[in-house]
Automatic annotation (TrEMBL):
This is Adenylyl-sulfate kinase. Pathway: Sulfur metabolism; hydrogen sulfide biosynthesis; sulfite from sulfate: step 2/3. InterPro entries: APS, APS_kinase_dom, P-loop_NTPase, Sulf_AdTrans/APS_kinase. GO terms for cellular component: cytoplasm. It comes from Aeromicrobium fastidiosum. CDD domains: APSK (cd02027). NCBIfam families: apsK. Pfam families: APS_kinase (PF01583). Its EC number is 2.7.1.25. It catalyses: adenosine 5'-phosphosulfate + ATP = 3'-phosphoadenylyl sulfate + ADP + H(+). Belongs to the APS kinase family.
Length: 191
């Protein structure tokens, strides 16, 4: 048969008609980017259309005008959420490792997705502050201690813990956090 779609299906293609947004929220150095990159690699090996919208990267081209006040963080989260929504509605699995410290703006993004019938999977990367400070991948905690930076999430700026995420992953105590996330996304039908 020459019908492309039927051929794809008979070959076991994993192409999905609908995408989803998987938001990895948590403190700096919790392991959000590491998990997103690992999952994106696994999804690509499965021929899944996937994008990663990483906080650090996205801030350089989508939200360069925004800083780290509450107002700016909320605007950042909603703008990133809108891009994720556009991608998700075109079949892309969108992985978003962005701190998103406030419940309210995370809920705005959830609503945006749910109103369009799209899945919004909130994953709390719940690695403790103590472990994040030990890792200090970008030296932010050291800069806060030496007072060359202020308003650091989890230290002298708020982080509102998600009350009911789809998943909590502590990358210090769970050595298989990526496997747990993959299993969850497969169970939800997003992989
Ligand atoms: N004050 C302060 N607080 C938190 N993070 C800071 C700050 N200043 C700079 N950075 C760097 O910016 C990255 C966080 O950007 P996000 O877009 O994820 O943050 S937010 O959701 O808008 O709060 C964050 O990246 P990650 O460490 O990967 O989380 C930091 O590298
Ligand atoms: N499961 C893990 N076990 C140990 N270290 C990890 C784990 N996941 C991430 N890390 C380390 O933690 C640091 C911060 O990770 P990163 O993904 O950049 O955090 P975030 O995006 O949350 O700021 C990196 O040095 C990374 O190697």
């Amino acid at each position: 048969m020459s019908g492309g779609i039927v051929e794809q299906e008979s070959q076991g293609s994993t192409s999905h008609r609908f995408g989803a947004t998987v938001w990895l929220t948590g403190l700096p150095s919790a392991g959000k980017s590491t998990l997103a990159t690992e999952l994106a690699g696994r999804a690509r090996r499965d021929s899944r259309a996937v994008e990663v919208l990483d906080g650090d990267d996205v801030r350089s081209w989508l939200t360069p005008d925004l800083g780290f006040s509450r107002e700016d963080r909320d605007a950042n989260v909603v703008r990133v959420g809108r891009v994720a929504h556009l991608l998700a509605r075109n079949g892309v699995l969108v992985l978003v490792p962005v701190i998103a410290p406030y419940v309210a703006s995370r809920e705005v993004v959830r609503e945006l997705h749910e109103q369009a019938g799209l899945a919004f999977v909130e994953v709390h990367v719940s690695t403790s502050l103590e472990e994040c400070q030990r890792r200090d991948a970008k030296g932010l905690y050291a800069r806060q201690r030496s007072r060359s930076l202020s308003g650091l999430t989890g230290v002298d700026d708020p982080y509102e813990i998600p009350p009911a995420p789809a998943l909590r992953l502590d990358t210090e105590t769970m050595l298989d956090a990526a496997d747990v996330l993959e299993t969850k996304l497969r169970a939800l039908g997003h992989l």
